[in-house]
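Regression report. Comparing outputs from two consecutive submissions.

Submission 1:
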Amino acid sequence: MSRNTVEEDDQSKRAQSKAVVDAYYQAGVQRRLTSFAPYLHSDFTTTAPNYLPWGGVHVGAGFFRDQVLPDLPDVLDFGRFSYDSLLAESDRVVALVNFGVTGSDAMIKISEHWTVKDGKATSIWVAYFEPQALLEKLGIAHGLSR
């Protein structure tokens, strides 16, 4: 395989991986987040901080499809979504994103690390920066100042 062919394959894989991840955010912006479900691999793994209702490690697309996608707009306002960055390297995509906290003026920054294989999302690992407003929305006590 020539060097150009390898680079083109990698560029194609990056573009496909970014397109799958972007489909998630666009589905949320369009108020149809559950329509992202067909992009989930059956063994999709969700990893989020344990202090959240959807936190921990969950294996299987059913959890994300049935527990996260329908309920996430109750806490994250996709209407105020924006990218800080969307980067891909082969099948790995990192989205540094901003969301409004539903029902408030607050914003939250989230780093979401995705893996995509053959056009299907296989995992997401999520980290929240300054999550106080989100925790308050969820009714979770914390000792963090705002």
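Submission 2:
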Amino acid sequence: MSQIPMKHRGKQPRFFAAEGVDELVSMVLELTTEVWVVKKRLYLLEKVAGDQGIDLTPSIENYDLDEQEIKDLDAMRSHLIKRILRATEGSYSSTQRVKDGPADAGQNAEAA
């Protein structure tokens, strides 16, 4: 799957006069998208499993992650944070900018 380039050409449009508001709105929209994708997938997973007579709640609550799963989840969390903070890149010097992680480090909103 190809990725959309993360480098923007030209000046970013500003919609609010106050410093940082545009970046904050972008972060909230990105988080809202991520939350919706997760809620939709969880709903569908529970619905499909429930329709087949499988109650996933006890299994999920009692599941113990192994070392690799913990590392994978940490990588996905880091990638999500970088994507959320991408909106603030223009507000910091180039030495402090957050770089995007590997494309396969987390789930994309488009994947759901």
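Expected: both submissions complete independently.
Actual: both completed, but the second showed a warning that disappeared on reload.
Relevant detail on submission 2: Residues 21-51 form the longest helix (31 residues).
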